[in-house]
């Protein structure tokens, strides 16, 4: 008997388009896990169907109130019959009169990873597992309740574990209500059914286009997946300080309207964060720029801003431009790419999505209405300090390897220079000097469904903006206050319907939860009043410090020979590598030894630094631009984009980097004098944990063989870390897009030829058991570890050029700075590096 018999017996498949399913035995085969899906189901009563793939079917629970991210919220989940695997993709309408009649959307989907044997857990009544979805993440539990007398239902509880993805300040069902498949709401699909339409789950693109006006064909020949009508945006969580660590990148926090650009075969639309179509509001220039992008279809995330003469975005200026109809100067900064030409990119790492986005926007004029939002890898706290000095709102920090997840989570963290957020306008107080004019507005926010008072906002208005706002408020005047209790009995207030939302800057919250020194910035028409809540910074994710295996410290050697440099080291006996007793003086002495070999690879080209002023066991940070206190030997130079780059020209410059506590030196693949034409390609072979070194060696030899077939010489370098670098010298003729495109295509070809061995995808999930062919180091601004540089790893390991014939006997971390400092200088294997280069393109 099939476990799907009960499912099939409840349905008439001549009337419903639900899948009948092939079905398997239903017997679980160990702790495998698989896909999960949560379907929002508006039947006789709205509920959420929670399904886990196991044993060829979908184990299913009906969660009456839906999943909650709050561990204190234990949601009832009724265990129901198994569903076929094909049901995971079902989205549409079940006809009235059929079992479960109503509309269904795929509210979330992804992968579940069980802890232990799922079959045993199901039998025992406790399933513990992790979810990797668009909206649901982290650890969860399903726990069976003890049945009461006469109880026929198999009742369980769905519970979120206390981890970094737990949330108590947001109802994910409210903030992210729509489908992750089509972008539609369950109401839109239900309305479609009310008109007599039957949702066809085999053609979601047609249905999505029909639900979105004006209708456009959403697929074309060669498309793999339909372009969604709308995707709920990924929202940032407020923190007082930016997150630290190399896994984060940081972007400017823009002061404008968050908009999703939807491009479908020559037609562009702009949608607000709630899915409203605002295309007609921003003039023809931006729409034409989006429609003219070199793609058939795309879904872009970004922000529309008005820039002042200082280049800083201003929400007030944006409001004024829209009010005056002066939209020609508005700029759309694109910072993420969710869909491109039939490919859903949301599962790709952020860095990979941004690379695709940058390539898509390469032809857009630098001063045009459509621009790429650059990111930075300096420490977040440094970025925030720069942003505040420039008068920016703050920074948004994003996990470089995270997928795009709708709703508010901790993949994106926002940090602000001053506090500001949206508030509902509950009323206004006329001016004492002139009662016909507006004196201040009364602000509020929602908490547990009730509007709470936040105090008054009496500054930030111009005469014109105050008059315009008063006219709008008078049009929605109300007889009673929207506040309950004493706040609703305040005298002298003209109460209004709580429909308008104001953006307000303020100094702080008082103990009584009102605003101090609040200033009006403008109205927010892109956010519904019912979604406004008090925004409080959350604590950073608590993560245990990584364990360190301390090596026995060796006795520090005697003083090194004097080095001829004008740079004076402070604290020369400071141990930068405590495990090896390797000091700042030792580091300078090592570089003095290898300088004749290293010089040609680090001088005259942009550098990025890994600094550890207190040693590698202390705080480390990545620095790409010049900072205060740098020695004059560290040169500063702006490129064509106005970006201030750092470089060195001589050993004094290198000594100055040592003085700064630089433990790694990374270089661009181009010189300052020919910055747009790289002179090398680097393939970084990065193995997943557990991949044997023999496979990494074989991968390097395979890369070499394929490059040789294409007519390119390639050289080998041990990285000082986990893998090898295969480096190709180039004649600097091809530009960055051409070089990056070649490297990407080469890596993708290796992945396609042997997908079980290699991946060209950055995500950890894609790397499992494979070697990542990292081609991302070949983009403009990307860097790779310099030959002969030390690494911030125990033992003072080195990145070192080596002979191909030695690969079988070498490990990537084989070379140590102490050995070279105390022994012989390595041979100059790359003396002819820059004469061996061949052009990537003709000419």
Automatic annotation (TrEMBL):
Enzyme superclass (EC): ligase
Origin species: Bosea minatitlanensis
PANTHER family xref list: BIFUNCTIONAL NON-HOMOLOGOUS END JOINING PROTEIN LIGD
Catalysed reaction, written as an equation: ATP + (deoxyribonucleotide)n-3'-hydroxyl + 5'-phospho-(deoxyribonucleotide)m = (deoxyribonucleotide)n+m + AMP + diphosphate
Name of the protein in its database record: DNA ligase (ATP)
CDD domains: Adenylation_DNA_ligase_LigD_LigC, OBF_DNA_ligase_LigD, PaeLigD_Pol_like
Residues forming coiled coils: none
Location of the region described as Disordered in the Swiss-Prot/TrEMBL record: 14-34
Single GO MF descriptor: DNA ligase (ATP) activity
Keywords, in A-Z order: ATP-binding, DNA damage, DNA recombination, DNA repair, DNA-binding, DNA-directed DNA polymerase, Exonuclease, Hydrolase, Ligase, Manganese, Metal-binding, Multifunctional enzyme, Nuclease, Nucleotide-binding, Nucleotidyltransferase, Transferase
Pfam families: DNA_ligase_A_C, DNA_ligase_A_M, LigD_N, LigD_Prim-Pol
ATP-dependent DNA ligase family profile domain sequence ranges: 323-466
EC number: 6.5.1.1
Cofactors demanded by this protein: Mn(2+)
């Amino acid at each position: 008997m099939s476990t799907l018999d009960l499912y099939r017996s409840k349905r008439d498949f001549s009337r419903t388009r639900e899948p009948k399913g092939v079905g398997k035995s239903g017997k679980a085969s160990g702790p495998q896990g698989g896909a999960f899906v949560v379907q929002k189901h508006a039947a006789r009563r709205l509920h959420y169907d929670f399904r886990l793939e196991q044993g060829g079917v979908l184990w299913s629970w009906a969660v009456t109130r839906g999943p909650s991210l709050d561990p204190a919220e234990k949601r009832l989940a009724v265990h129901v019959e198994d569903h076929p695997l094909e049901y995971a993709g079902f989205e549409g309408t079940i006809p009235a009169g059929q079992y479960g009649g109503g509309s269904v959307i795929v509210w979330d989907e992804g992968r579940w990873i069980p802890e232990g044997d799922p079959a045993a857990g199901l039998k025992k009544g406790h399933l513990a597992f992790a979810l990797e979805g668009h909206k649901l993440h982290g650890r969860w539990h399903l726990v069976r309740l003890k049945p009461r007398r006469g109880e026929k239902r198999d009742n369980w509880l769905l519970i979120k574990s206390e981890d970094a993805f737990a949330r108590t300040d947001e109802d994910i069902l409210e903030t992210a209500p729509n489908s992750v498949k089509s972008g539609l709401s369950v109401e839109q699909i239900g309305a479609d059914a009310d008109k007599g339409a039957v949702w066809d789950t085999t053609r979601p693109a047609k249905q999505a286009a029909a639900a979105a006006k004006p209708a456009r064909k959403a697929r074309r020949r060669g498309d793999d997946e339909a372009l969604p009508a709308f995707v709920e945006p990924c929202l940032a969580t407020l923190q007082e300080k930016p997150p630290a660590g190399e896994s984060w990148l940081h972007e400017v926090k823009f002061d404008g309207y968050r908009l999703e650009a939807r491009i479908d075969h020559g037609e562009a639309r702009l949608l607000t964060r709630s899915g409203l179509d605002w295309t007609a509001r921003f003039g023809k220039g931006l729409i034409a720029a989006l429609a003219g992008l070199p793609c058939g279809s795309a879904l872009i995330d970004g922000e529309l801003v008005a820039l002042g003469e200082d280049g800083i975005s201003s929400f007030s200026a944006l409001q004024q431009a829209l009010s005056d109809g002066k939209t020609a100067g508005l700029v759309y900064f694109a910072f993420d790419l969710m869909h491109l030409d039939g490919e859903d990119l949301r599962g790709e790492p952020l860095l990979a999505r941004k690379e695709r986005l940058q390539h898509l926007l390469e032809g857009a004029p630098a001063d045009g209405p459509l621009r790429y939002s650059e990111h930075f890898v300096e420490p977040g706290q440094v970025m925030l300090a720069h942003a505040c000095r420039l008068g920016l709102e703050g920074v948004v920090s994003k996990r470089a390897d995270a997928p795009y997840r709708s709703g508010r989570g901790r993949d994106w963290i926002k940090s602000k220079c001053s506090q500001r957020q949206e508030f509902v306008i509950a009323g206004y107080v006329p001016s004492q000097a002139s009662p016909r004019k507006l004196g201040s507005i009364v602000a509020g926010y929602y908490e547990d469904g009730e509007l709470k008072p936040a105090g008054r906002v009496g500054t930030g208005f111009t005469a014109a903006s105050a008059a315009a706002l008063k006219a709008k408020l008078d049009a929605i005047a109300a007889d009673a206050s929207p506040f309950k209790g004493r706040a609703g009995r305040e005298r002298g207030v003209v109460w209004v319907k709580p429909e308008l939302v104001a953006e307000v800057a303020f100094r702080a919250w008082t103990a009584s939860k009102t605003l101090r020194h609040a200033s009006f910035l403008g109205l927010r028409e892109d956010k519904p009043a019912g979604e406004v809540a008090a925004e409080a910074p959350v604590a950073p994710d608590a993560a245990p410090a990584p364990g360190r295996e301390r090596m026995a410290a060796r006795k520090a050697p005697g003083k090194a020979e004097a080095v001829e440099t004008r740079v004076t080291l402070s604290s020369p006996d400071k141990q930068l590598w405590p495990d090896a007793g390797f000091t700042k003086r030792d580091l300078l002495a090592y570089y003095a030894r290898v300088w004749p070999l290293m010089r040609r690879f680090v001088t005259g080209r942009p550098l990025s630094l890994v600094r550890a002023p207190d040693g590698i066991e202390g705080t480390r940070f990545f620095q790409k631009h010049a900072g205060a206190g740098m020695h004059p030997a560290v040169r500063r130079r702006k490129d064509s984009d106005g970006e201030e780059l750092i470089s060195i020209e001589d050993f004094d410059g290198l000594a100055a980097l040592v003085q700064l506590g630089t433990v790694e030196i990374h270089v661009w693949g181009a010189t300052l004098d020919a910055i747009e034409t790289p002179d090398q390609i680097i393939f970084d072979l990065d193995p997943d944990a557990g991949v044997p070194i023999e496979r990494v060696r074989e991968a390097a030899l395979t890369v070499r063989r394929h490059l040789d077939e294409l007519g390119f010489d390639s050289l080998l370098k041990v990285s000082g870390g986990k893998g090898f670098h295969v480096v190709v010298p180039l004649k600097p003729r091809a530009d960055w897009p051409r070089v990056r495109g070649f490297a990407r295509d080469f890596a993708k070809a290796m992945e396609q030829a042997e997908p079980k061995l290699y991946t060209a995808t950055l995500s950890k999930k894609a790397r499992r058991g494979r070697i990542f062919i990292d081609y991302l180091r070949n983009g403009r601004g990307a860097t790779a570890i310099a030959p002969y540089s030390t690494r911030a790893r125990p033992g003072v390991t080195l990145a070192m050029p080596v002979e191909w014939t030695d690969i079988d006997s070498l490990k990537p971390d084989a070379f140590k700075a102490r050995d070279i400092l105390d022994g012989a200088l390595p041979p100059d294997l790359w003396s002819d590096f820059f004469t061996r280069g061949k052009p990537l393109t003709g000419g």
